[in-house]
Amino acid sequence: MRITVNVNGEDRTREVEPRHLLVRFLRDDLELTGTHWGCDTSNCGTCVVLMDGEPVKSCTVLAVMAAGHEIRTVEDLADGERLDPVQQGFIERHGLQCGFCTPGMMLTGRALLDRNPDPSEQEIREAISGQLCRCTGYLNIVRSIQWAARKEAEDARAEAAETAGSQA
Amino acid sequence: MQVPASFDYERARSVDEALELLRRHGEEARVVAGGHSLLPMMKLRLAGPEVLIDINDLTELDHIDLVGDELRVGALTRHRALLESESVGRYFPIVHDAERVIADPPVRNRGTIGGSLCQADPSEDLSAVCGALHARAVIRGAEGERVVSMADFHQGPYETAVGVGEMLVEVRIPVLPGAGSAYEKVERKAGDWAVAAAGVALTLREGRIADAGVGLAAVGAGALNLHAVQTLMNGSEPSEALYEEAGRVASANCSPVTDSRGSEDYKRHLAGELTRRALRRAVARAARSTAREA
Ligand code: FES
Ligand code: FES
């Protein structure tokens, strides 16, 4: 079947078999290997990507089902050289060790902050509860997302102050 | 890598088109919505449909509406929407209890109520919840719609009343005055299937229990409506002695089997204890809604 999926803002068209999984489509066909692939049974969450803005496990979505939808992968988080605050948070708060779970964790963090810019610790833990980290014990992942939330709030305040200043 | 066997894929643009496709392909076709029950089974080659009919575009099946004295939930309503629905939480706290412990957020973003019920896995939570709530399922086919009780909908493990050329389109849950409900689940780890779980729904009328519904998950087939417990509860005044007896009867009236999640004895014990806990909370919630409505 010929399908077109909007991946990271760009329409990508490929010929695929209906049984082709979205994770394979991203990794093998589009060579976007930032999306990882682990258990293959919708348990570990390392394959999480955003589908129309919300986290889904791409090992349990058929590529054909994603046709006509918007998929966002970790490759799209940074804006050129400028890291997304969530990525910056993972650096500042040591949110990764081996990095295997990290793309999915960061995308879930991004989706959470887009909906809820000031999540509680409990809300962050709940949001990442479908994703396993084999290394960090989660504490630093939570702190990384908290760092990003604070950073975005500060940036927004600074920007508001600047606009107010320029109007005066 | 796990890959399903080959199949053809069709994306339905309307319920009528989905029904037409189901008719045309007969036994070999399966409906796919969230896919979080079906795709894992297809990867393990436990299911091998020749045609998948994708109903994700049928937004007419994605709704939660209060119509008269029932809540009508479209089959394509995602777990997440149920969890975020204020009216679902107000009328049926049991649904929110259950949704918080069904799988995890990315899975709840995809999985649907219709998919959960049609999978008819005796360990699945929403089936027990809908059983306890005396929900009814609306099945549509070429001849029109028929409405069946949950007890008739579930015909056995992985078997439902949905026939060839038909599909589940809606779930209807009665909204009753003075209602309270609760779900209690024990799982080995967050997001896992239940070791055992119990759902209770009831109303309080002049201090006595009415409309009792008790549904158990993961303790064998046929536990979605435990008539023995329901009969015991209806007309009784809530008391610790009643809860005790209800738990005893629930535990005697289920058929768990030993597996990697626990022994038969342990699950039987849980069936009793979780029924007691759910009952206690359902009564407390019913008392609160009675007070609110007064
Ligand atoms: S690879 Fe998809 S959940 Fe583990
Ligand atoms: S950093 Fe290793 S799995 Fe999370």
Automatic annotation (TrEMBL), chain A:
InterPro entries: 2Fe-2S-bd, 2Fe-2S-bd_dom_sf, 2Fe-2S_ferredoxin-like_sf, 2Fe-2S_ferredoxin-type, Beta-grasp_dom_sf, Diverse_Oxidoreductases. It holds the Pfam family Fer2_2. This is Carbon monoxyde dehydrogenase small subunit. Residues 1-77 form the 2Fe-2S ferredoxin-type domain. Keywords: 2Fe-2S, Iron, Iron-sulfur, Metal-binding, Oxidoreductase. PANTHER family: OXIDOREDUCTASE WITH IRON-SULFUR SUBUNIT. The lineage of its organism: Bacteria, Bacillati, Actinomycetota, Actinomycetes, Kitasatosporales. One of its GO terms (molecular function) is oxidoreductase activity. Pathway: Alkaloid degradation; nicotine degradation.
TrEMBL record, chain B:
It comes from Streptomyces fructofermentans. GO terms for molecular function: FAD binding; oxidoreductase activity. Keywords: FAD, Flavoprotein, Oxidoreductase. PROSITE patterns: FAD_PCMH. PANTHER family: XANTHINE DEHYDROGENASE SUBUNIT C-RELATED. Residues 2-178 form the FAD-binding PCMH-type domain. Transmembrane segments: none annotated. Pfam families: CO_deh_flav_C, FAD_binding_5. This is Carbon monoxide dehydrogenase medium subunit.
